[in-house]
């Protein structure tokens, strides 16, 4: 384990290169998966299996102690063992299964007693689209996540204060970006290769923990717009929904970018909680006048710390019910929230002189629009809990959002799904799920396509919406190590855009995505 971690810390220094992972660079044109990629994938999975599954060490080490994703009370019995979503938190470590190699110097308990805790999560996955998309292909990508928590009461006598830092080391390339061409990225970890700071904040608890104030570099996707049941799924939209990721500058303060912020959370009791965050509205500066460059290239290390952009405010209220210990009723929660961005945006259809952007006489610069806003609602509910178990059963979620502002690319969004933990006999920690997400493009975006047809006289597809259906199964090999096969169906990639590789200009075909993920938590 130590050698594996050391290798990735060393290799992260090379991650700034935007060349694709060596496992896919040798893929012959037109082939689904290269001969070099296959042994890379298999060797990675086998190495993890060999690391985690010696017969003498693979014994059950106790039931997990869960907290709810997003920092709320746990209401979902089907929240999975591991997740790539930023809100999911940290569950169990593989350390006990490694025996004397788990902590060879005995540092972890010593550091914890002094208020210093660290953890690592490594995710490796391969994804491919044998059918549909811009073109067929496959990728290998991975991400190492380092977390550090400092309890300032133990370290310095500062009661109720905590410092938290999180850094990512990202390798490989994205299937959506280079092969599928869809809006709802096929993986939560998809990002340009980089070694970057994610969050760094100070949290102060007041009034016996009823009020929490947090200041520093933060990400909204760790606490807002979160469904605990949805943390099982691989597609990025089940973490930070596409309506915010596509409508806000730089994708909003969400993986892989965060921004300076102040967040307050009030928990008066009886299941109620209120929270609001004030964020710098553009984590990377991609919303400046002129061309809209790639946000991740503008902030390659996560250390821009922008503070002069127009603000983004996110707020939500949650009511969690039946969460008391010993409650015989099934737990759930209801959340209402919304966002308001105070910056300037460009029209998707009209230029700054009033002409359609598709008009040959247009300036090509969209009319300035003020602000972007939206509202959302979440319902997360345990539908069935197995007798005598508090972490096995069936969970359900549904999220809906609407953004009426004319600066929005996506105006309406809906996702829903079911997940069951412990469905099969003898596999109590495994989780299986199926989900659906639908993003509807705004009227202005669709009308701009009509304008293009009128002014060019060329028949072309008109964008409407994109839908993803996902089925997944997360198998726990030993506590802290999971393997997760995944299947996704992408309907109308890009909302139904024309394929630039098709000489006849037909729509990008519906894509089938097959994947396999391995996750190690330490």
UniProtKB/TrEMBL annotation:
Region (Disordered): 64-89, 280-302
Superkingdom, taxonomy of origin: Bacteria
Pfam families referenced in this protein's UniProt entry, alphabetically: OprB
One CC-aspect GO term: membrane
GO molecular function list: porin activity
Extent of Polar residues compositional bias: 76-87
Gene Ontology biological process terms in this record: carbohydrate transport
Basic and acidic residues bias locations: 289-300
UniProt record similarity statement: Belongs to the OprB family.
Protein name: Carbohydrate-selective porin OprB
Organism: Methylorubrum populi (strain ATCC BAA-705 / NCIMB 13946 / BJ001) (Methylobacterium populi)
């Amino acid at each position: 384990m130590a050698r594996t971690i050391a290798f990735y810390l060393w290799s992260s220094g090379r991650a700034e290169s935007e060349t694709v992972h060596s496992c896919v660079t040798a893929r012959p044109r037109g082939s689904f998966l290269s001969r070099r990629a296959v042994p890379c994938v298999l060797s990675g999975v086998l190495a993890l299996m060999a690391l985690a599954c010696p017969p003498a060490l693979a014994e059950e080490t106790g039931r997990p102690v869960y907290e709810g994703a997003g920092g709320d009370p746990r209401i979902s019995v089907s929240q999975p063992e591991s997740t790539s979503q930023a809100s999911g938190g940290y569950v169990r470590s593989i350390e006990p299964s490694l025996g004397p190699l788990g902590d060879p110097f005995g540092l972890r308990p010593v550091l914890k007693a002094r208020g210093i805790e660290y953890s690592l999560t490594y995710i490796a996955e391969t994804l491919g689209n044998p059918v549909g998309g811009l073109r067929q292909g496959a990728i290998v990508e991975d991400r190492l996540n380092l977390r550090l928590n400092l309890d300032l009461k133990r370290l310095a006598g500062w009661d109720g204060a905590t410092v938290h830092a999180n850094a990512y080391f990202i390798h490989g390339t994205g299937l959506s970006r280079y092969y599928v061409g869809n809006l709802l990225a096929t993986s939560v970890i998809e990002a340009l290769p980089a070694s970057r700071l994610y969050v760094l904040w100070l949290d102060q608890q007041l009034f016996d923990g009823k009020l929490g104030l947090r200041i520093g570099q933060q990400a909204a996707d760790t606490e807002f717009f979160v469904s605990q049941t949805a943390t099982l799924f691989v597609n990025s939209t089940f973490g930070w929904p596409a309506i915010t990721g596509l409508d806000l500058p730089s994708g909003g303060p969400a993986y892989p970018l965060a921004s300076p912020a102040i967040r307050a959370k009030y928990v008066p009791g009886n299941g109620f909680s209120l929270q609001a965050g004030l964020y710098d509205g553009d984590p990377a500066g991609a919303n400046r006048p002129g061309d809209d460059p790639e946000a991740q290239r503008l902030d390659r290390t996560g250390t821009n710390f922008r503070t002069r952009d127009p603000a983004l405010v996110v707020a939500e209220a949650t009511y969690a019910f039946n969460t008391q210990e010993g409650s015989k009723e099934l737990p759930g929660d209801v959340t209402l929230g919304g966002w308001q961005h105070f910056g300037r945006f460009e029209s998707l259809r009209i230029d700054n002189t009033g002409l359609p952007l598709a008009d040959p006489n247009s300036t090509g610069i969209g009319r300035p629009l003020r602000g972007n806003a939206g509202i959302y609602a979440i319902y997360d509910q345990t539908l069935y809990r197995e007798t005598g178990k508090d972490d096995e059963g069936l969970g359900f979620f549904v999220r809906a959002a609407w953004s009426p502002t004319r600066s929005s690319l996506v105006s309406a969004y809906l996702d829903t799904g079911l997940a069951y933990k412990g469905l099969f006999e003898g596999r109590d920690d495994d989780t299986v799920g199926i989900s659906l997400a639908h993003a509807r493009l705004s009227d202005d975006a669709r009308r701009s396509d009509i304008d293009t047809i009128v002014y060019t006289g060329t028949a072309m597809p008109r964008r409407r919406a994109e839908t993803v259906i996902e089925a997944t199964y997360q198998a726990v090999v030993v506590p802290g190590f999971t393997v997760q096969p995944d299947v996704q169906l992408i309907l109308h990639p890009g909302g139904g855009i024309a394929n630039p590789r098709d000489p006849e200009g037909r729509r990008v075909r519906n894509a089938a995505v097959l994947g396999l993920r391995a996750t190690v938590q330490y």
